[in-house]
Every structure is written in structure tokens, then in C-alpha cells.
Design goal:
Order of helices and strands: EHEHHHEHEEHEEEHEEH
Number of helices: 8
Number of strands: 10
Distance between the termini: 47 Å
Largest sheet: 10 strands, mixed
Strand content: 15-25%
Low-confidence stretches: none
Length: 254
């Protein structure tokens, strides 16, 4: 069983690859409470992207589940194969004059830095999203991570910790992304164009449009309404406007 997708079959990966000039290999697991431990805390289990795009097809779901089962049942065997595939992909890119990049948490949130994966390949670039604010600190220089936001009250300690950094914060909006407006006191940019570009948007809100037919019906607090954004940054907003733009959940958690 092959772990990495090296053909950019994921639409977002394909966009990112085209925009950046990097060649990207990705890993898609089927999420559970181990490979995505903060899903319940953040309230994103129901509207998860696992069923979006090719995830709607049973053969794709089964393939992702098989990879997750491999990770759960034989962790060292999984890591050995993953390292081998990463090495092969890097060699292929070098032969072709391409720059290698990896997104190993397409639909998961595994701290790969704890396994020394990015550190082992300083010649490659790694990128991911996470719901663990702890992961935003002390990352290898070739590993960029975006924090994923949720309005769930019990998740606000994570949000507060993330906002103490200048790491980009991804917010999923229902319907459309209010580009140019503000949320959590930060400017909202269009995050649906390139994940590589998103990683470099320090101090910004990475606005992502809600995807997946099932997710669009969800009332999860992981999803933000465009009307919750404001037209002013934190330092210029009235307190009631700022509360409606996400800060209210943070204040309630104090």
C-alpha cells in the first residue's frame, strides 16, 4: 500500500503546487480520535472535510482507512514506509530539478516533528494545519503550520495561545470569505488559493470557504458566519463589534 499521493490529485494541493512551483506530496488518513485528537474539542468532527471532494467515493474512504489502520496497528512499520517514500520523492524531485514539499496532515493532526520527520529532511519543505496551539512553538525551520480556529467555548484556551504568536489562523466561513474584513482583530485573506502562500501570511486570518455538502448543513461552532467579521482591526473596533468578531468567545473563556 502506497502512503503518499505524489500526483496532486487533491484540488487544493494542485492549486498550491501550481502557484508555488514546488512539487507537493500529501498524506490523507481517515481521521479518528488518535490522528485528529482535538476534533471533539474544536467541534469539527461533524463538518470534517473527510467526505469532501474525492472523499465522497467509497474506494477513497477505504484507502484512507487502510492507511489509518496501518498507523494504528504498526506505528514503526508505518513510519519506516513513510520515510522510504519521502526519500524516494525527494530523489525524484532532485532528478527532475524540482523542489520537494510535503503536507502530511491533509485530514489529520499528527505532530510529525515528534517523530523527527521534518528534521530528517532539511532539503524539503513541510506544511500543515493544526488544532494544537502547542505545536506552533519550536518548529523546525522547514516546517510551517497554520492554526485552525473554532468558536467552541472549551477550545478558547487553544485560540488564546495561538493568538500570542503571529502564525496564520485559519477560519472556515459559511457561504463566502469576507476578504478584507477583520476577525479576531486580524485581516482576512483568501485562503482557498494556495496553502503555500497561506503559510507566509503571518498575523492574518486565512479565510476558507466551507466545503462538502454534509458540512454545509452543520451548525457546528467550527463554522463562522461572514456577518461575524468586522470592518476594523482590533485596536479600532468598538468592544461590541470585537466580541462579535470572535473575541467574545475568548473573553468568555477567561
Amino acid at each position: 500500500m502506497k502512503l503518499l499521493d505524489t500526483s496532486a490529485s487533491n484540488t487544493k494541493i494542485k492549486k498550491s503546487q501550481k502557484e508555488s512551483g514546488l512539487r507537493i506530496a500529501s498524506l490523507s488518513l481517515y481521521p479518528n480520535d488518535t490522528v485528529c485528537p482535538a476534533a471533539i474539542l474544536a467541534g469539527c468532527k461533524e463538518p470534517c472535510l473527510v467526505e469532501a471532494g474525492f472523499g465522497a467515493f467509497s474506494n477513497v474512504r477505504n484507502g484512507r482507512q487502510a492507511k489509518t489502520d496501518f498507523y494504528m496497528k504498526d506505528r514503526q512499520g508505518f513510519l519506516d514506509q513513510l520515510n522510504k517514500e519521502i526519500e524516494n520523492f525527494i530523489s525524484l524531485c532532485i532528478r527532475n530539478g524540482e523542489s520537494p514539499a510535503f503536507r502530511l496532515n491533509t485530514i489529520s493532526d499528527i505532530p510529525w516533528e515528534r517523530y523527527g520527520i521534518p528534521q530528517r529532511y532539511p532539503q524539503a519543505y513541510f506544511l500543515d494545519y493544526t488544532k494544537s496551539a502547542q505545536r506552533l512553538h519550536d518548529l523546525p525551520p522547514n516546517y510551517d503550520i497554520i492554526f485552525s480556529y473554532s468558536q467552541e467555548p472549551k477550545y478558547q484556551k487553544q485560540v488564546k495561545r495561538a493568538l500570542l504568536t503571529d502564525r496564520p489562523v485559519a477560519v472556515v466561513f459559511r457561504g463566502f470569505v469576507p476578504v478584507g474584513s477583520y476577525f479576531l482583530g486580524r485581516e482576512i485573506v483568501d485562503g482557498d488559493l494556495s496553502d503555500i502562500k497561506n503559510q507566509k501570511q503571518r498575523g492574518k486570518i486565512i479565510g476558507l470557504k466551507l466545503k462538502g455538502n454534509a458540512a454545509k448543513k452543520s451548525k457546528s461552532l467550527f463554522i463562522v458566519e461572514p456577518s461575524q467579521s468586522t470592518q476594523c482591526p482590533a485596536q479600532a473596533c468598538r468592544s461590541q463589534d470585537l466580541a462579535e468578531a470572535g473575541k467574545g468567545f475568548l473573553l468568555a473563556a477567561e
